[in-house]
Design brief:
By secondary structure, the chain is of the alpha+beta class. The chain is built from three helices and five strands, in the order βαβαββαβ. The chain has a five-stranded mixed β-sheet with strand order 2-1-5-3-4, with helices on one face. It is globular and about 30 Å long.
């Protein structure tokens, strides 16, 4: 199981708590986690990434093990600590401005 921490507005939309768990078959990649998250919580479909292109939405960021994963290729495997469930994948709503 992979732990995912959602920002408040997405918790409300998905009707969850701050942390959810998703199960991944195969390699634990960012794309696989997002696919599983959208499958388990259909209300999140299109909120994290575009429906067609699957590109990350501009004000959504992904962090794991104190690293910004927002610009890595979606097929990149997540750190072992995240894949094993020790550490969560953080989804953060970025704030614009200074």
């Amino acid at each position: 199981m992979i732990r995912v921490v959602l920002p408040g507005h997405l918790q409300i939309l998905a009707k969850t708590g701050s942390e959810v768990e998703v199960e991944i078959e195969g390699a634990a990649t960012l794309a696989a986690v997002l696919d599983a998250l959208e499958a388990r919580y259909p209300a999140l479909g299109g909120t994290l990434r575009d429906h067609v292109t699957k590109q990350r939405r501009p004000f959504v960021r992904f962090f794991a093990c104190e690293e910004d994963l927002s610009h890595v290729a979606p097929e990149t495997e997540l750190p072992d600590a995240v894949a094993s469930g020790k550490e969560p994948l953080l989804i953060v709503g970025a704030i614009a401005g200074g």
